[in-house]
Amino acid sequence: MRDVAVVAFAQSPIVRREEFRNEVEILLPVVHDAIAASGVGRKEIGFTISGSCDYLAGAPFSFVSGLDAVGAWPPIRESHVEMDGAWALYEAWVRLQHGDLDSALVYAFGKSSLGPLVDILVLQLDPYYVAPLWPDSISIAALQARAWLEKGHKESELAEVVARSRRNAQSNPNAQLSGDADPEALLAEPYFTSPLRRHDCPPISDGAAAVVLATGELARRVCERPAWIRGIDHRIEPHGLGVRDLTRSVSTADAGRRAGVGEKPVDVAELHAPFSHQELIVAEALGLDGTTDINPSGGALAGNVVMAAGLTRIGEAASRIMDGRAGRAVAHATSGPALQQNLVCVLEGTDG
Amino acid sequence: MAEPCAVVGVGQTKYQSTRGDVSIAGLVREAALRALEDAEMTWRDIDAVVIGKAPDMFEGVVMPELYLADALGCAGKPMLRVHTAGSVGGSTALVAASLVQAGVHQRVLTVGFEKQSESDAMWALSRPLPFAPPTLAGAGGYFAPLIRAYIRRANAPDHIGIMVGVKDRLNALRNPYAHLQIEDISFEKVAESPMLWDPIRYLETCPSSDGACAMVLTDEAGGRRAAKPPAWVLGAAIRSEPTMFAGRDAVNPKAGRDCAADLYAQAGITDPYRQIDVAEIYVPFSWYEAMWMENLGFAPDGEGWKMVDSGATSVEGDMPINPSGGVLSSNPIGASGMIRFAEAALQVRGQAGAHQVDGAHIALGHAYGGGSQFFAMWIVGSELRGSA
Question: Which of A253, A290, B4, B300 is spaced 20 to 30 A from B99 at the CA atom?
């Protein structure tokens, strides 16, 4: 495979509600920052791709206006996935393998404040047999958490995850939620949807993220320490909740194996786990142990821009390679109810 | 160099207003199973699935690929979902081809679908975006002024759109999958049909269809050992440009011209009119056949309508366009682009049945979307190299 690296990452502040900016206005400075930081000229970008979801805006073609943030003139090679931007990055990585293009811009955005997100996500379920029952996204996560606890886990493990996320987020200027949370105090909070407390659930967020990829020579030229993609893979599981063991993430484990996660120690892992128990399920699937710094950005519990949160994990992991804080990092993205679809990306600072 | 890619299986559903006999899952599975059968493969042979459809509001299911993973045999496999407006069927096929060309996978199943009877496309296309000017007029209301601009610019006679409306419906009578089967189609019948968005008459516009189209794509080794003749992907290109800005020509978009130029360069085509044997292009409103003839370089600027007028674009003509009946005869929007790509492949495989163009070796598949701003195209051939 051709060497491809992340050479730049930019994101907006993650906020509960962008009152005065639409999606393009949120996106424009983010795309501009990523391209400026990449050292690749805007018109030299070979391939452009985005991830977004029409239903967040309640209108078709939300990606069309996103193009205005890119300046698609003269016309560009451009595509879009109705998926988290992490999958857009995967498609860009595939396209760069052809050998004729050397760079790609990947961006994603979501403005969840425009509608009732937990209800909108119900429309993501089997439209004939499940959606008519209106199980909202938090209730489905609670079912998963209950199954996980019944395997012998404790609620205190969830509180530890949340406390660490809030603590780590204190050093993330873009985080929506941060603070010095005490696990004991968190456990004293009432249930929101049992066994989940409000802090076990992701915040509702608005924001955007962008990544620039470059191949071998170009990456070395424009970036002092590129974050080389050493493995990337994604897998999906059956949709039906009843046919999966919700306490394990076999698709994460499979993608992680194929991406080579276990071949060497992992310094940093950015896991896209919107709910606290999901971080523990994903970490177990990837075989991560106590030596890995998990979600130093605070993760999705500190800010969850739907459609951009997975791409942000890749960006946060890559940033730690690029600035020398980590030598080897793993990024993970998820989609669908109860971790149905998962992507794993391994990044390294070592060249060659 | 990228790995060669071949189409070794094609599957289509019958296109009709309402496929009330199947669920959304049943619809996509029907096309996928037919493509697998054509390729003489089973689900087990497939490495990855790439699915595409137009806005999710057309069915009211958010990111329906998640729910369709089971029906398309995706468990444990990679699945991608593409959405690039009306061009999506073409873009989806190109993403699937890209996986093969990158050497990432050897056998990829790709599916495009729309089940428009589940919702209302006019409504879904007209939802106002916050802070954006609403069109509230569906696609016809958007494209009619562009067509009027073309007519004025090219000084084209009024009957050109009517001729395309007749020709594509006559072609559809030879395609058992086509939605519209209008036995008594005639110039008078189209001319006398109600005016919807001047100059677009009722019979000059596409229907609203349920349907799915699927293809199995393989690498070179897969193409070489395919059970039936493969269609080799000789060129693949996409281009996008913004919806609105002062310097844009929305009638003859630069994105389309650039896309065709990139495509022809890859496939070694210098004279598309002479070298391409048949084309399946995205014509949702009759006049777009004439307009795309110019955008694609089949005719000089201002003369695309003359190809229609002379009969060159009929099945018996020099440059047969849409022998399947085209989008004017079947339009499950998210599949329509892929149907163009698949029909191009069927032609060079010699598998197009009653609408086969004799001696078709090089074919163009074309799709566009948004405000004439997203383009996806491929050239397929019966031979891998040196045939164009």
Answer: A253
A239 vs B contacts (CB less than 8 Å):
66-70
pTM of the model: 0.98
Q: How far is residue A171 CA from its own chain's centroid?
A: 19
CB-nearest to A61 from B63, B242, B370 is B370
CA distance A241 to B274: 55
**Structure-token pair, residue B80:** 């991608």
pLDDT in tens, B176-202: 999 999 999 999 999 999 999 999 999
Mutation target to probe the A interface, by most A beta carbons within 10 A, among B67, B114, B219, B239 is B67
- Which residue does chain B place closest to A343, by CA atoms? B78
Beta bridge partners of B253: none
Residue A347 pLDDT > 70? yes
| CB proximity list for A33: less than 8 A, separation 6 or greater | A10, A210
Indicate the angle between helix axes A250-259 and A276-285, nearest 10 degrees: 50
In this structure, what are the phi and psi dihedrals at residue A76, rounded to the nearest 5 degrees?
A: -120, 160
Pairing of strands A268-270, A293-294: parallel
Say what percent of chain A tops pLDDT 70: 100
Report CA-CA distances (Å) from A89 to A144, A269, A342, B89, B204.
Answer: 28, 18, 14, 20, 40
Three-state DSSP class for residue B182: coil
Rg (alpha carbons) of chain A, rounded to whole number: 19
Contact by Cβ (8 Å): A318, A288: no
